[in-house]
Every structure is written in C-alpha cells, then in structure tokens.
Amino acid sequence: MHKLIANEIMPIYKTEIIHDGPIFATSDIHGDIHAFIISLRDCAKVITKKNYNKDNLDQETEDFLNIDISENDDCYDESLGYEWIGGNSYIVICGDIIDPNRQYTKAESTVIKCKKKCGYEKYCNCTFYPQSEIKLLRFINKMNELAQEKYGRIIKLLGNHETMNIINNPLYRQFIFYQDNNDKYYRNNNREGIFVKGKIGYDLLFKDGCGILIKINNTIFVHGILPTTKSIFEINQYNQDINNQYSSVETLLPIYQYLNDSTESTPLLDRNWGFPELRTGIKMDNPRLMLSFCEDNVKKTISDFLMLDDIDDYRVVIGHCTQSDYSINKYNTTFINIIEQDNIRKIYNAYNPMSGFIDPDDQDFIFGITMSCPKENKYGLTDFFIYRVDVGSSREFDKDINIILNKTDEEIDAIAKENKYLFSRTPQILAINRIENQDIITIIKSKMKNTRIHLPRPEYEEQIKKINLDRKTNPSLHPNYDNLTSLDLSNPHYLQMKYLKYKKKYLSLK
What we know:
Strand order of the largest sheet: 9-8-5-2-17-18-14-13
Number of domains: 1
Mean pLDDT: 82
Number of helices: 14
Shape: globular
Radius of gyration: 23 Å
Structural class: alpha/beta
Distance between the termini: 38 Å
Low-confidence stretches: 1-8, 349-354, 482-510
Number of strands: 18
Largest sheet: 8 strands, mixed
C-alpha cells in the first residue's frame, strides 16, 4: 500500500484518512434541508435537539428557516437548535448540496409538483425558504464544528452543481429559485454568482474543506466516478490547490475546467458507474456482461487510480445518479436482513444468498441505494465494489408524486404505488462500521410514516384528505386508499415474511 499522507508535510486537505469510528454517506441533497436532517437525526442518529417530538413536524426548525437573513441574522440560529451526539462519527456528503429548483424556472409557471402556501405568494416549492442554500451550508458547517469537538466530522465533497456554480455556468441558473434572483439575496449578494471564488457562498462551501474525493480507510467517496486518466496523487494535488485560500484564479481555472469537462471520464460528471444498465446496455441479470463490466471497467479503474494490484478490500461510494428510478424498474440490488427501530429500518447482508447474483424478477424490496460488482462472500457477509447513495430524496424530484393518487389500469393499489414511487426515495444513509477488521455495510432508511411527518408534502396530504372525505360519501370510488391515513405504509410484516422465506430456502440448501 502506498503512503500518501506519510510523505506529505501538513497537507491543507487530507485526501486519505484512517478513521476507527462509524462512517455514514449520503449525497445530492439539492437544498432539501429536511431530508438531510432526517438522514442525520433519524438514520445516522448523530444529531438531536431538546424537546424534539418524533410524531410532529419540528416547528422550531420551520420558524428558523422562515426567517429572512439577507441583511443580518437577527434571532436566527444556524444550528436550528440541534446538537451533535454522534461522537467520532464521520458523515460524508458526496456532492450536489446546492441548486434546489428542479420543478420550474419562471415566476408565472404553475408546474410545481410539491408545493406549500408561501407568504405573499399563493404557492412556492416545498424546499423553498429565504436563503435556503446558505442556511443549509451554514447548518452543515455548524454541525461539523460541533462534531469536531467530539472528534467527528461532516465532510463536504464537490458535485457538478457546485463546480458549475463556481464557474457561473449560465445553464445552471435554471436551478435557482426565481424568488432568490435579486441583488439582496444574502448580504448584498445576488444568488447568481455567489459561489464564484471570492464570494461568500464559495467561502461557506470551502469552510473546513471541500474535496473532489476522499479516501477513508478502504472506501473512496466521490460524486460521479473514479477518473480513468488521473491517479490519487494527482487528485490529491487538486484537493490541495482548491482548498488553498491563496490559490490564484489562474491556478484554479484549469482544475475546474477539467472537473466540468464532459468529453472524458471526469469524477463529477461521468454517470457510467451510476447507470451502467442504461449507459452501457448491461443488464444486471446477465452475469457474463456484468462480470466484464466489473473486471474490465470498475476493478481496473480502482487499481489504476490507487496504483495497487490487490484492491479486493476497497469500494467506491458515489452519488450523481438517482437510484430510485432503478427501484421503480426493479434494477435494484437489495439487502435482505431487516431490523426495525422507531423511525427507521436497518437493512444489511446483500443480494440473493442462493445464487450469488441479482435476480431482477425477484426484487420486492424498494430501497433506493443500490450496489454493483459483488465481492466474494466472507464470514456470511457480502460487500460490493460500488455503492450508489443518490436516491433523489429531495422533494424537488417529486416528478411522479401524482401517479400515486391517480388510478390506472395497470396499478390501482395506492399503497403499492406509494411504496414504489416514494418509499424508494425516503431519506436513507449508507453506514460503514469496522468490527474486528471487517467492514459491516448497512443501509439505514427512514420509514414511510416518519418521512411523511418530517418531509412534508402539503399538497399530497391535502389530496389524500380529499380522497378520504370522498370515500365517506361514496366508498366505492376509492377502494384502495384505506390505509393512507395511517401514515404507516412501509408494510414491515410483508418484508419480514419475505426475509424469512429467503432464510428458510437458504437453510434448506445448506
């Protein structure tokens, strides 16, 4: 194993880290601070607040987020009342923290999938609050400050949306809320251009460091893919340059041009590892093609990047590619061992234990996080070379929300549709725990009930209320919506029965 850190003298940014505590990964927040809080509070359990009631939306956070901090903080609390209880846990955010507006671009547009009543306007997006991206970055930085007191960390990585804002690409201005597009957005700065070097948004993004990628123990975290033309040494040098406050624009420009180059395999833009079935035509139920993809592409790239021959203990965690679409289309490698806890479900021990391959016709669990390129089973546990943690949990991706409420010939069961289109997108986190020299990989995801309380979709809930009122008058109109009022739609009994079926079949083959 090479010794990168040992050969450096006080690097500005540590690209390689050895850490003996829990590690959690998420990505693609896209401005939805509620989804991020659920991931940290309910899934990773690293933050909490006094008087928090899991059965009700956190009104204190709502009040803070609705404060306009364009000129000063007034009574705003950037911690939103939360404190760090995660000890030495590390949280890695694999890029795309900003750019929340995915639903419409003009003030007069009415195409809002998730909307709420919003002050002087009739409706605005569910994720819209005054200076929402600034508040999200300040919240992340404040939690990181509190975490460091306990030897924990929140690690920010760049995504393509960060770097495109850094170079102020005009194509990315469509992702700015039109309400924010004024010169008094934040401390006399316009939202457009606020993340350019020298501006306050850039400083918030790079406060306490922000890397292109980072390697913690045997896991590499990056937004899109490992580059095929760069080694970890070269990316490390880029990390030093972009985190050096004295780096000139002339030094940084070639780096950001490289990161935003769509003509080659660059770590923030390439989607080949995130969507291999769509990008390369490989089907997950074709062992021969998947083996070729894993051996000739994934494993070779990891080996070349690390300049190591033996990379069997390594893995790469990526974002950038929304995996809920895979769940909907049953292209999902799942974990089958389930542990129920209050607001979350913990799932571990992956893929079909009988065949060792993924059977897309027998994937009834809808998770979101997916995996590819399985390793040899060790000690009854499974591991993969690729984990994909972008599940589209931001409400800005609610493109399919109305499908749940609309009856179709193919699928009339509202609960089944909610599981299909929403349960795959509930906030979730990938956990890596080192136990006796073995990495235990776990998916921890918010239950549907918890998600509907703490990631509110007011219009969705209003439509459900309307359906239930209609049912009182004419129950035959909506026969499949009985349980939508219960808020507990993740069907744990069915999932547990499915697991027991797998277990019984597996034991009968031993």
